[in-house]
């Protein structure tokens, strides 16, 4: 509860600071400066005050591309893709220059919402405006198609990137992972290694989500070896994914070794992953001990912690009741 109260207090404090700044800007008469107005606009969108932000946007006397982009990003981050798309269309009609950042922001929202129909419309606009060759826009396309599980479309975009980097390659792997396409995901990993592309946490974390059965224990160990070779074992996302993968492969011992070696870099997800692993292996006492250790270390439980603990207690209660019923 403390963390929630703290979050509310921080949000209220940030909003108050923006309001205070806004008052100073009006008092000093500097609102006409587009740079100042855009900074205010960004501050309101960061506080998720989209109503005030939009009203402010309407009052900016000399908007530029950054003004439009800021409002679009605000709506995308707020999860309102429809309004963001409408703003982009108005921006286009008003003959403001759209750029790679404009399209990248919209495509981020498309990927998050898995609204590939919007993505295709954006793709059409990008072609018409001549931004198809823009690296930022093309990478955003790749990411959007991959996250919407349109792996073939993502790969077609990828093939047109003249010098793909690790970000480009890593955009393909999550798409294959989400589609549960083990073959393609690991083929991409092999291609990256042959091309000499640097492997990072964005490469391994999605791959490990595919290794979730005892038949993949050897594969998990092989991936772990590559992680150690690349000195990525202390990356939080990789560490957490390894714990979950080893657990789901049936090796709680290997999962614990990863956890123990992560001293100094553990986050709440690391603790939650290990607690969930013990509960999945019906080692409730160790899980509860670990949960208490987590609290002693200053980590506050979140919804995932409580869900794991409560689910385990409920299942244990059901088992006990069933046993009593059978004996009766």
Explain how this protein is built:
- This protein has about 325 residues and is mostly helical.
- The chain contains 18 helices and no strands.
- The longest helix has 27 residues, at about 1-30.
- It is globular, with a radius of gyration of 24 Å.
For the terminal residues, how far apart are their CA atoms?
Answer: 42 Å
Major sheet size, sense and barrel closure:
none
Class by alpha and beta content: mainly alpha
Mean pLDDT: 85
Count of discrete alpha- or pi-helical segments spanning 4 or more residues: 18
SSE topology:
Layout: H1 2-28, H2 34-46, H3 50-59, H4 65-78, H5 81-93, H6 100-113, H7 116-129, H8 135-147, H9 151-159, H10 166-178, H11 182-195, H12 201-208, H13 217-229, H14 236-248, H15 252-261, H16 268-280, H17 284-296, H18 303-327
Helix pairs in contact: 1-2, 2-3, 2-4, 3-4, 4-5, 4-6, 5-6, 6-7, 6-8, 7-8, 8-9, 8-10, 9-10, 10-11, 10-12, 12-14, 13-14, 14-15, 14-16, 15-16, 16-17, 16-18
Features:
328 residues; mainly alpha; 0% strand; globular; disordered C terminus
Gist of the model:
Helices cover 76% and strands 0% of the residues.
């Amino acid at each position: 509860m403390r963390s929630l109260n703290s979050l509310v207090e921080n949000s209220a404090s940030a909003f108050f600071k923006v309001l205070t700044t806004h008052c100073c800007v009006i008092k000093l008469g500097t609102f006409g400066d587009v740079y100042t107005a855009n900074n205010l606009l960004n501050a309101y969108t960061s506080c998720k005050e989209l109503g005030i932000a939009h009203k402010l946007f309407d009052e900016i006397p000399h908007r530029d591309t950054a003004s439009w982009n800021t409002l679009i990003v605000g709506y995308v981050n707020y999860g309102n893709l429809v309004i963001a798309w409408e703003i982009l269309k108005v921006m286009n009609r008003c003959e403001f220059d759209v750029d790679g950042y404009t399209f990248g922001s919209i495509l981020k929202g498309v990927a998050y919402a898995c609204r590939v129909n919007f993505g295709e419309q954006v793709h059409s606009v990008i072609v018409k405006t001549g931004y198809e060759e823009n690296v930022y826009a093309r990478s955003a396309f790749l990411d959007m198609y991959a996250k919407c599980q349109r792996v073939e479309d993502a790969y077609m975009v990828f093939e047109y990137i003249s010098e793909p980097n690790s970000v480009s390659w890593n955009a393909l792997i999550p798409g294959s992972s989400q589609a549960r396409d083990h073959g393609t995901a690991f083929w991409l990993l092999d291609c990256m290694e042959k091309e000499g592309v640097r492997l990072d946490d964005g490469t391994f974390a999605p791959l490990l989500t595919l290794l979730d059965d005892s038949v993949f224990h050897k594969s998990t160990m092989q991936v772990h070896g590559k992680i150690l070779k690349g000195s990525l074992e202390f990356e939080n996302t990789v560490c957490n994914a390894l714990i979950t993968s080893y657990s789901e492969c049936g090796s709680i011992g290997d999962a614990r070794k990863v956890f123990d070696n992560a001293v100094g870099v553990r986050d709440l997800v690391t603790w939650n992953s290990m607690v969930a692993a013990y509960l999945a292996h019906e080692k409730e006492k160790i899980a509860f001990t670990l949960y208490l250790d987590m609290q002693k270390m200053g980590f506050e439980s979140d919804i995932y912690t409580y869900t794991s603990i409560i689910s385990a207690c409920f299942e244990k209660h059901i088992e006990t009741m069933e046993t009593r019923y059978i004996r009766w």
